[in-house]
């Protein structure tokens, strides 16, 4: 390629915002996996291993979802979906797809819904034993529209780099808020409700029949099947930028806006003066999240714990609760632990502590 | 298309009797779900209530 051509391409990318743009996908390199690095027996939708990456399954086989150390050169990790119980005859409403969801307020630079709407380019690395054609969609959740594209896996078991440019959309403004506005979908299998339509490569009203209409592969066909992905990048412009590497800490901080896991390893890990509000609950001091959450998070604790209330000097503490606790006063920045113990006086205060390590989840995922 | 398996749901009230959250068992895990429409668990609970497939019990 000539220098003149390279300069012309560079100018084109600047015009499209690609050079100044960044990757709108969080954790596209699959480096952060706060929940787990491996989950077996997956049969339903959820965030399983790599942060911000959702595996959607509805009655179509059983899978192991893992964060792998296997990746193309220059990347460290990938997410793998491995079929462990096959279902080669899915019912019409069954499906398997992988998704990443984006907030509307982070997409305003796309100028969607205006005459100046910009194209975006989706790039990623994929590896599978299943050669053939796959479908990927971008779904505008605010205006219920789709644009789709297909890509092929040409060789079995080899990393392949794919780039897909999606046209700008001059109708349908994305909401400028913290809710889901755009969902990227990589389809892997489905019943007839999702593959009986046509592949729409321009923005059009959403129809379930079109969501997997362009695919020829089905991950649920065999327990030999797997699909891996990494290096996901969505940037403004009609050409892909190089995957922008960032430190683990930077990616973790971005992920914690959506999900945070607080893990401690020993007793007394949560302790302090708890107050009894007369409804049989001790309410502890507020603990702060490391990152402000996208929305008020769902709180849960993991495992079985023992809570103790300290007594007078030289007296053994009293076990007041085991198992799940509750949470109250949860905001996007903090929460409090609740521990049940009946018979306490309203307004009384006691030193309460956990008798083992403690793990708390705060989930504000899209 | 989230297909969460929600098996129990009960309001949690503060000292004044105001509902402040929903204690729910979702995909086998007990969770404290805030009363925030932007929270995906709250949205799914309300969707299932509207569909008539889930009932939220009053607070104890």
How does this structure look, described?
The complex is a heterodimer of chains A (366) and B (60). Chain A folds into two domains: 3-256, Jelly Rolls (Sandwich), CATH 2.60.120; 259-363, no CATH class. The longest helix of chain A has 14 residues, at 3-16. Helix content of chain A is 7%, strand content 39%. The mean pLDDT of chain A is 90. The radius of gyration of chain A is 24 Å and the shape is elongated. Chain A has 366 residues and is mainly beta. The two termini of chain A are 43 Å apart. In chain A, the strands form four sheets. In chain A, strands 15, 16, 17, 19, 20, 21, 22 and 23 form an eight-stranded antiparallel beta sheet that branches. Chain B has one helix spanning 40-50, and strands at residues 6-13, 19-26, 29-34. Chain B is α+β, with helices and mostly antiparallel strands. The model of chain B has no long low-confidence stretch (mean pLDDT 92). In chain B, 18% of the residues lie in helices and 37% in strands. Chain B has a three-stranded antiparallel beta sheet with strand order 1-2-3, covered by helices on one side. The relative contact order of chain B is 0.27. The longest helix of chain B is centred in the last third of the chain and has 11 residues, at 40-50.
> How many distinct domains of chain A?
2
Oligomeric state, counting identical vs distinct chains: heterodimer
Low-confidence stretches of chain B: none
Biggest interface, and residues per chain?
Answer: A-B, 30 and 26 residues
Number of H/I helices of chain B: 1
> What can be said about the biggest beta sheet of chain B?
3 strands, antiparallel
The CATH class of the largest domain in chain A: Mainly Beta
Which value, in Å, is the CA radius of gyration of chain A? 24 Å
Described by the principal axes of the CA atoms, the overall outline of chain B is globular
What is the CATH architecture assignment of the largest domain in chain A? Sandwich
Q: Report the β-strand fraction of chain B as a percent range.
A: 35-45%
Question: SSE order of chain A, as H and E?
Answer: HEEEEEEEEEEEHEEHEEEEEEEEEEE
**Widest sheet of chain B: strand order?**
1-2-3
CATH topology annotation of the largest domain in chain A: Jelly Rolls
Structural class of chain A: mainly beta
Radius of gyration of chain B using CA atoms only: 11 Å
What is the tally of beta strands of chain A?
24
Poorly predicted runs of chain A are none
